[in-house]
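Morning!

This is the sequence you dropped in the shared folder:
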Amino acid sequence: MSLLFYRRPDFVAKLPGPMDKTQCQIYVDRTQKHKKAIPPELSFDNILQNKALPPCALQDFMDYLVYISHDAENLQFWIWLNAYTTRFYALPPSDQALSPPWSAVEGLQPTGNDPSRPPKTARKSQFGAEIDFDHPSIVPNAVQSPPFDKQSFISGTANTAKSTADSVEDANAQVGLKWQSFSVQPYRSEIDRVISHYIAPDSPRELNISHKTRTVVLHALQHTTHPSAFSPVRDLVEGTLRGQSHPNFVRWSICNGNKPKVLFVRNAGIAHVVLAIFLAVVLILSKASRWWRLFCFPLFFLGFSVGVAAYKGLCLVIHTGHSRNLRPWEQFGDSASLDSFDNDNEAGLSTDDVYSMSNRSSGGKRGMSMDTFGTGNSFDHEPWVERYKKKPFLQRVYPKNIGIQDETIRILQDRIVWQSHLWSLLASVPLTVAIIAVPRLGVW
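The structure's back. Tokens below.
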């Protein structure tokens, strides 16, 4: 990486409409253009395996998708599917035989129903390496989701099960699938819950997929609970995460200041440059020696350095301690609890909703972002939102700081800071020389 010309990963804007193969390939093509901007230590796989440290840990990635990008359902589904694939292949062969692999070609027929064609359990992903469903990727312990029956968490399991079944039935009906799924297949109840949370239209964490993709997946899931039934969705989700969410997250993580801080620092840099120009004009119009104009140089240098660094999301003062501002949702230690919902809303919550919010009130994961099942990813009801809105402007500009643990992020920030100093020097020296060369006008 060049010290003078290093650039953060370019921002990859979301494309309109539902995810499809063409859209995800565009994401991947855009990402390839600035692949060198993301070091191997901050690769997608390292972050998903929790090998990176804050502010690039897996929880930080999830927080970004929840609070900034607003598409956390992609990562939530991807983590679940990887953990589910691992658990599925840990079943006895007799149980696995109940759910044959699925191929979305040749008339949408399950591979187990065609004895003339061997099961197709591995295929090439259009956005990454080959996906081998016979040898699934292993999800690290930090993000494993062990199977358990949350319906026994509170009473009223029958109503929740009925709600899930109704959601699955409605989703199947909308795509023209009338018959029931095979209930004897392993993890059928969990698959139904996934459909009601991620696949069904208007589900709490509905994936942004097309009607065609939803039809293919629901058709496959009626035949089998094999992980390969999710392959069309997995391709799209992985392509979006790798090509759009990940580079944007790395770009965001390099910043050490919140938006109010960065805007304040950027304006401060502009103010120093304006002050240097004003001082130069005053000295040129005066009878003072032209060498007094050298005092314009520190103002130019400081203004350009601060401005260039702030343009890239860095505050030079905070950087001296290798720290960053606490994010708005990190500035308040308490989390939402069941008491924050009125009785009318709580009465309509499902078992998954109550379980998820109970985790929040018991000091578990931040929000419900790392839970596979629960309410949607909206955070408007979280207590920190209103409290942050009420904070005075100066408290937003000067929040508490926390140290940056990831060494790679520190190196990238150092590189950007040195880059800002070099560009500032290249701009300040010619300007100062030009100002000194202007003859005195002697107006006063």
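Headline: DSSP finds 17 helices and four strands in the chain.

More detail when I'm at my desk.
O.
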